[in-house]
Amino acid sequence: MRFRNARSNSRLRHRLLLVVLAVAAFVVIAWVAYPPGYAAGPATTVNICGSSIDVRFEGETNGVSRADLLEWVHRAADAVCTYYGKFPVPHLRLDVRVRGGAGVHGGVTYPEGGGYINISLGADTTVAQLNDDWMLTHEMIHLAFPSVARKHHWIEEGISVYVEPIARVQAGQLSPERMWHDVVRDMPQGEPEGDDKGLDHTPTWGRTYWGGAMFCLVADVRIRQQTHNQEGLQDALRGILAAGGNITQDWDIERALAVGDKATGTTVLADLYHEMRDQPDPVDLAALWKQLGIERAANGSIQFDSSAPLADVRAAITRREAAGQSGQH
Fold first, then answer.
1. Segments in the chain forming alpha helices (H)
2. Are residues 132 and 260 in the same domain?
């Protein structure tokens, strides 16, 4: 989950100011009586592709060690570095709080301080659950796109939903079969329903998360078709990040998409945005899977058809690029 940046909405800023003033005394008392968990000790720094992550822990786990948790952080960051070619921000603060049942729970990503993530997990979380986790990677991907207006929240969440499993495949943490199995299963949640008014005007959970991911999938395929599979959404997103478009920056969505299009030499992102922003524009997913050569058996397993028209596009989406090749095809 990405925190909506108050700086991008003056009315929200005023409301937040009233809330802050109303609870200021309580916050001061709570800070003294119940200091944040990370105040109890120094941070442990994880260095990843030229950036640093200061990790602080609140609470103790039963089944995993601090070394296991730090490896979990490193794995998530490595997947993000693999996809973007760099970590999105020079320095990240990450608080890991132990609470609730086993497994990794929801996290929130903030722009403050150059990048801050708060995420929780249960005391009985296992190493296997850490190795299979997607949530921390999802949160770190939020760092790699600028803050846009509230009505465009779907692009922020959609990018994280779409990119997360691809990044993990490219980093060798997930199989393509598992990734496409989950995508084929879940992507229909992004289809418009009867009262849909387009992505900018339908802030439901399905349209925000999976509708945004559907935008990314269609954009990825179209970019690769138009560039003879030499460029993809990955190149567009790397171009946005290279231009300074990370979570600490407030951009208009049109600016972000134009920068991404410039990186691929197309107008796919701008064109698709104009198609989907104000009208339902459903996607024939069954036809798309067939073109990509993704076949789902009756038992739910995934097989690939290498003779499908867009089989090469499907393979390229999850292929890890050689260092230094992105944007230099």
1. 10-33, 66-84, 127-131, 135-141, 153-170, 176-186, 205-206, 212-226, 233-242, 253-264, 268-276, 285-292, 311-318
2. no
